[in-house]
Amino acid sequence: MKAIIQRVTAAKVTVGEELISSIGKGLCVLIGISNEDNANDVDWMAKKLLNIRLFEDPSGKRWSQSVLDQQLELLCVSQFTLYHRMKGNKPDFSKAMQGVDAQNLYNTLLAKLATLYEADKIRDGKFGAMMQVHIQNDGPVTLEIESPPQSQQDLDKLKRANEHKAKSKKSGGEPAKDGEEQ
């Protein structure tokens, strides 16, 4: 999962003439989801977005406070074009996760951010729409981050957990908590 993070004094998303979302001071984040991304990437990204120190503290010390520290807003915008590669002069987006799967993982990220922070401070655009993103970049400060590649052991663990959840739902039982047996 990749993010372009922009520190802003204001940002908004419109579709045509309709205002979809807007924020004051905070972060505008363009989110790209690759074919290989999963729940581990969502967790990593959510924690990083909330804790990355891009703001000054009250004494003026730079790079010392996060969105959480200052209780700021986040505007997230899905952007599949972040996972492109060039084929000559034409971009190829085959590395980007497509359709419903991408939307589900993007919505999972928004839900995770809302759970770890305050839901009313998390905004987003309109998934899959042709959006206009208006930002007033502060600084300007723009960073790119990407969730780290996962080991096969991590992927196997996630697969087993998902299989266990699916099996529990089929049997009508509640999923077992870590360390509990069914």
Strand and helix map with partners:
Blueprint: E1 2-15, E2 18-23, E3 26-32, H1 39-51, H2 67-70, E4 73-78, E5 85-87, E6 90-92, H3 99-116, E7 122-124, E8 132-146, H4 152-170
Parallel strand pairs: 3-4, 4-7
Antiparallel strand pairs: 1-2, 1-3, 1-8, 5-6
Helix pairs in contact: 1-3
Features:
single chain, six-stranded mixed β-sheet, 30% helix, 4 helices, 182 residues, alpha/beta, globular
Please provide a written account of the structure.
- The chain is α/β, with parallel strands linked by helices.
- Helices cover 30% and strands 31% of the residues.
- The chain has four helices and eight strands.
- Strands 1, 2, 3, 4, 7 and 8 form a six-stranded mixed sheet that branches. The chain has a two-stranded antiparallel sheet with strand order 5-6.
- α1 (39-51) crosses α3.
- The longest helix is centred in the C-terminal third of the chain and has 19 residues, at 152-170.
- It is globular.
- The protein starts with a strand and ends in a 12-residue tail after the last helix.
- The model is unreliable at 175-182 (pLDDT under 50).
